[in-house]
Amino acid sequence: MGGQAKRKSSKSRRKQRGRSGAEDMTGLSAQDRMKIRMQNKARKKTADKYSIHQLLEKTEEYLDNFNFEMAQLFCQRALDLEPENLEILDMMGNICMELGDADKARQVFLKAVELSPDKGHTKYMCLGQIHSKEEALCYFQKGIDLMIRTYQSQAQESGAANFADEMEVTTKDISTAFCSVAEIYLTDLCMEEGAGDKCKDAITKALEYEASSPEALQLMASYLFSMEQPQEGTEYLMKSLASWLPSLQKNEGGAPEADDADIVETTFPPYESRITTAKLLIEAEKFELATEVLEGLLEEDDEVIQVWYLLGWVCYLQAKESDEEEAFKDSARTYLRKAKKLYSKLRCDDAALLEHMEQILTDLGGHEAPEDSDTEDPAVENIEDDFVQSSEDEAMEA
Predict the structure, then answer these.
(1) Res. 255: pLDDT tops 60
(2) 109, containing H or E segment
(3) Domains, the chain, with CATH or none
(4) Which end of the chain is less enclosed by CB atoms within 10 A, N or C?
């Protein structure tokens, strides 16, 4: 009798859970309820259909094609099967960061820290990127400590026979990590006592590990400009520029070619970093070089307000000291008007930037271009609505 009672009790609990689940969807429309059922069915089908190895292969396949939504779907299925697998946790965290889901990424990486606090630097570097100020510094420092320990261990085991592509940690990795620390002191903690010295120390260490690092050289330039040492700052800036601009110039239009994607990723600074390069070049009054860098950025992406604004600004400055004053003024007007239109289109909220653009345009004089000269085609604006496809449907097809 006791066993039968227990079986009935267990069955009753299952029924209750079923009723509870149904009640959770009572406020939803029939379409939403059907979607949830289909999602659950897709999850079960995917988990039943693929092994862990196959799920990770599918995840990698979608990552290679930059389809992060589908990659996340398959990676989550793998994580459901092995929730404490560090490799899967690391992969899921990076996918979440690519998708801009910082909260989910934080949750995943903290789980990895809990499971393996003293092994694997990547999770700490990612947590440093997610956080700010002192919290970011703590994560970066922990990551750097693990990286240096791993690097020294590699050197002892393999000696001079080590090749960069075979090493878990390279000098470039450590240099980049110290650059991340320096950036914190240049931005979030710039007002802290001793921030300048700590920033310089971090950049110096970055250069000790990778003397030709474009990022570290540029950061030293930024630091020196901020310390009102423009001559020294310009020297570091030109060293940074010399390490990547000639290679970029080989590509037509200044933009990296698709066939060189792997080389470009490791050789050229990121887009945002090159915007900073242009700003520093303008500050150093290297106007032609600044224009060259900005035009290259425009070839890659022509909807970045900062690039159009900086092109307008540099033309405005050149107009003040050139025999072709009117030509530079016309160019400045064109760039700044485009920047203002993008400002409205992208719903930017940088009031200081808008105010500066309007001040320059007022100073330049001349008539404003017609407001509707760059009106967007409604068909283009609504194009996303015609190509919406749920990742769940795609998963079931897979």
Answers:
(1) no
(2) helix 102-115
(3) 39-117 (1.25.40.10), 118-156+164-243 (1.25.40.10), 248-253+271-375 (1.25.40)
(4) N
